[in-house]
Write a structure and sequence with these properties.
By secondary structure, the protein is mainly α. It has two domains: 7-88, Winged helix-like DNA-binding domain superfamily/Winged helix DNA-binding domain (Arc Repressor Mutant, subunit A, Orthogonal Bundle); 127-171, no CATH class. It has seven helices and two strands.
């Protein structure tokens, strides 16, 4: 019996997400789709990917419901790959990943930046809570917790992490008092 855990066996939304978009070709194909590419030859030319790898990744993206395969030519039959609503919902993730990469480069070394389409001004994406508008970058203000479908093990994990967090916040630290 293998000691390795399969991603699909993990109880975690991150492992589920990685299952769908974890291969770097997938992220690059989605990025090209956000830029308006729909045809096999466009993806292949842009990415320099082998036909077999591109075929496999496109099939997986269609099977995962991120792209829809539609015929655009009848004779011979040719298909295009169009983002689904589910696929399009990954755009903020791709934008955040690109922004993270750019934050770790000198401005003159950035080959791609996000800009406001109307003004051309560079944008700096941030992830915020939709209810409060507060940035999620503050690791102390937002933490993960067990959700409604969590197993006993997942609940125990987050109960213990919460206990540790509360213990640290109650500890006045060295030299206090």
């Amino acid at each position: 019996m293998s000691s390795r855990i399969r991603l699909e066996d993990r109880e975690c939304p991150l492992s589920t997400t990685v299952q769908h978009v974890g291969e770097w070709w997938t992220l690059l194909i989605l990025h090209d789709a956000f830029d308006g590419y729909t045809r096999f030859d466009q993806f292949q030319q842009s990415l320099g990917i082998s036909t077999s790898m591109l075929t496999a990744r496109l099939k997986t993206l269609v099977a995962d419901g991120l792209l829809e395969r539609r015929p655009y030519q009848a004779n011979p039959v040719r298909h295009e790959y169009v983002l689904t609503e589910r696929g399009y919902s990954l755009r903020p993730v791709i934008v955040a990943l690109a922004a993270w990469g750019n934050r770790h480069l000198d401005p003159q070394d950035r080959s791609m930046i996000l800009v406001d389409a109307e003004t051309g001004q560079e944008a700096e994406p941030v992830v915020v809570d939709a209810h409060t508008g507060k940035s999620l970058n503050d690791s102390n203000a937002y933490v993960f917790a067990a959700g409604p479908a969590a197993s006993g093990a997942m609940r125990a994990r987050y109960t213990e992490l919460d206990r540790q967090r509360r213990s640290r916040s109650a500890d006045p630290g060295p030299g206090a008092g």
